[in-house]
Amino acid sequence: MTVIHVQDLQKHYGEVKAVDGISFQVHQGEVFGFLGPNGAGKTTTIEILEGFHRQDRGEVSVLGLDPQADRYELQERIGIMLQETELYQDLRVGELLRLFASYYRGAVDPKTLLEMIGLEAKERAFIRELSGGQRQRVVFILTLINDPDLLFLDEPTAGLDPQSRRAIWNWIDRGRQEGKTVFLTTHYIEEAERLCDRVAIIDHGHIIALDTPKSLMASANVENRIEFTTEGSLNTDKLQSMPLITNVVEHGRGAYTLFAQEAEPALKSLIALSEENGFRIRGLHVEGASLEDVFIQLTGRRIRA
Amino acid sequence: MKAFRHQVGTELTLFIRDRSVVTFVIVFPVLTVLFFGYLNQGGQVEGISYSSFLIAGGIGMVISSAAFENLGVALSRQREEGILKRIGATPLRIATLLGAKIAMATLIIFVQAGIMIALNMLLFRAQISGNLLWGFIILLVGALVFATMGIALTGISRNTNVASAAARAISFPMQFLCGTLFPLAAMPPVLRGLASALPLTYLVNLLRGVMLFGDSPWSYTKEWIVLLGCLLGAGMIAIKTFRWE
Ligand SMILES: Nc1ncnc2c1ncn2[C@@H]1O[C@H](COP(=O)(O)OP(=O)(O)OP(=O)(O)O)[C@@H](O)[C@H]1O
Ligand SMILES: [Mg+2]
Question: Given CB 3.0 to 4.6 Å as the disulfide criterion, which of A54, A97, A247, B244 pairs with A259?
Answer without folding.
Answer: A247
